[in-house]
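Budget justification note: compute hours in this period were largely spent on complex prediction jobs such as the one shown. Inputs:
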Amino acid sequence: MSPSPDLQSILQDPSLDPSLKAIANKVYLDQRISDQDCLTLFESGSLGFVGALANTIRERKHGHRTYFNRNFHIEPTNVCIYTCNFCSYSRLIKQREDGWEYSMEDMMDIVKSYDEQPVTEVHIVGGVMPQYNLAFYTELFRQIKAHRPELHIKGLTPVEYYYIFKKAKVSYEEGFRQLIEAGLDSMPGGGAEIFHLDIRKQIAADKCTGEQWLDIHKVWHQLGKRSNATILYGHIESFSHRVHHLSLLRDLQDETGGFQTFIPLKFRNQENQMSHIPEGSTVEDLRNYAISRIYLDNFDHLKAYWPMIGRTVAQMSLSFGVDDIDGTIDDTTKIYSMAGSEEQNPALSTKDLVKLIQGVGRHPLERDTLYQIITDFTDHIFPDEEVYRGYTSLPVVSS
Ligand code: V47
Ligand code: SF4
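Corresponding output:
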């Protein structure tokens, strides 16, 4: 596909800084950018510049296609033995009675409450507590599959796996084999935070290290399974810590090819030990999406998690490299509403999601967890309304 007019005009701009022009040229030629290039983009790439580059890549990979799925969350508990300073869950360990700790039955009741709904995925993640051990999760996954075999289980992160496998005295391979047999299908991207030890020891001192997070994903990929990756950005980390994080992910992806989607998670500052740190701006969020898209050339998908950034920024992100806006969710996640996100009761119907995507001229596609298309909503018009088709992509903002 030829480069978008935005990229062509950038390449012809005589006033553009030579190092930025060299990066734009690499994108034009579909070449990989270096870690130093990535740092240059973070330090001096304007929103308009990185947005034009990221949108070119996004449209090369996906055209206007924008993916979402129908899922629900189960958060087994909001109490956690770990003490991540950014997390509103960790403080609750001191007042355990204020939190929830679901039993197997409670969780099966949640699963059953979706019996009549066309959801394809359950996303299971929450705090780490001793009663949720390998035997518990094996049984939970078994019961979910016995009840609804086709429901995809996207469950737990290396934070839980490191803890439960160690307690059960099994290797990562053996632990995963048991869970796969019970019904585990894929791994979400949580727990990555910032890999660099200088930052990790300040924000997430006692859970698995960045190295362990990466090792666990590597073993998972070697078993032929897929997973996602995240970064928690916009707090005390520097741009070079972000580059370091992205670089470790790109290297592992070169090795295994097992990551599907990268999901930048914006730090929110309510109800946690880092409330004194101001939250970043929308411009920084969009720049971060765009630079992630440009650098992570071996990731197929970039996701904006709308409950965290809100619907409007999620729409804007679709012109800054993002091609996926997660799922319908249906108010079953609390981790962000507790941390102060835009969406206090995150729930969007399929119609809402389709309208949100169509509203900025993109093509909504319902996918399953592994990106197989379930329904193409590109030209879908809901019976009770007119769809606004004012423009085909958001204008790129220059700064
Ligand atoms: O690892 C916790 C983050 C993550 C805060 O794979 C916070 O499809 C911002 O990983 N501000 C868990 N972020 C959620 C997660 C996720 C979400 C959606 C989709 C997928 C996927 C994965 O939530 C944690 C942590 O990085 N988090 N507290 C906070 N105050
Ligand atoms: Fe626990 Fe995860 Fe929160 Fe850390 S981020 S305190 S591991 S729930």
